[in-house]
Design brief:
3-stranded antiparallel beta sheet, yeast vps74-n-term truncation variant fold, mainly alpha, two-stranded antiparallel sheet, 231 residues, 9 helices, 5 strands, disordered N terminus, single chain, 53% helix
């Protein structure tokens, strides 16, 4: 199968590609992956002008409501939009509703596009394990070049790259990606600026900032819960 040029990929596809280790054995930020991927879909809808948020909601974040009309260009986005339209709700529970089991859907999309491959192994002739290693690394390499230019060189990001960095930062996974991306005091500060929506047109930046803030709050709540049960 030939690899994808990346032109038909969503932000959530790119995010999953970056979070997946190249050997296909593990995913960074797996414990809160549903929030992160749900946030990526919600962010894309915001960038397309198909959802909007209000200024209410200290608990569970702002309320998200549908906007715009007409079909969306990808069935995954259409499904997410339909979820928002069916029952507008606040950001934190919405991220869970959108992100539940989404990693499997996105992983399979990446396999279909030739960016990952399914690889089954047996050891001791009995136990079976499945990995999804990189099959075509060109698109991910391009993503990493763009991210490095923004974080290290100070280039102004396009909306998609800014959203990716903001979502990675909000998820807490940016320092632990493998292969690693640059992580210094300078790049961490820049990533947090993008997480807060300090880029691009004010309306777009605000939408992304609110989504990223919801992910960060949700991830923190999950982390505290997991930590508490392990002590």
């Amino acid at each position: 199968m030939t690899g994808s040029s990346g032109g038909d990929l969503l932000i959530v596809d790119d995010l999953m590609l970056l979070l997946m280790d190249d050997d296909g054995a593990s995913v960074q930020g797996a414990g809160t992956l549903y929030y992160t991927l749900g946030g990526a879909v919600l962010t894309e809808l915001a960038l397309l002008g198909r959802v909007q948020t209000d200024d209410t909601g200290i608990v569970n974040g702002p309320r998200v409501t549908p906007a715009g009309t007409g079909p969306l260009p990808d069935p995954l986005l259409q499904s997410a939009y339909d979820t928002v339209a069916a029952r507008p709700q606040r950001v934190q529970p919405l991220l869970l509703a959108l992100g539940a089991d989404l990693w499997q859907v996105v992983r399979d999309r990446l396999v279909d596009r030739g960016l990952l491959r399914r690889e089954e192994r047996r050891w001791l002739g009995v136990f079976r394990s499945t990995r999804w290693p990189a099959d075509d690394e060109r698109h991910e390499a391009q993503l990493r070049v763009r991210i490095r230019r923004v974080l290290e060189d100070g280039d102004e990001p396009d909306a998609r790259t800014a959203a990716l960095i903001g979502l990675l930062s909000a998820s807490g996974s940016l320092p632990s990606l493998r292969p690693p991306l640059p992580w210094t005091t300078r790049t961490a500060t820049r990533a947090q600026e993008l997480q807060r929506g300090e880029w691009g047109p004010a309306a777009v930046g605000t939408a992304v900032a609110r989504t990223a803030a919801g992910i960060a709050a949700s991830s923190a709540a999950v982390a505290i819960s997991v930590s508490g049960t392990s002590t």
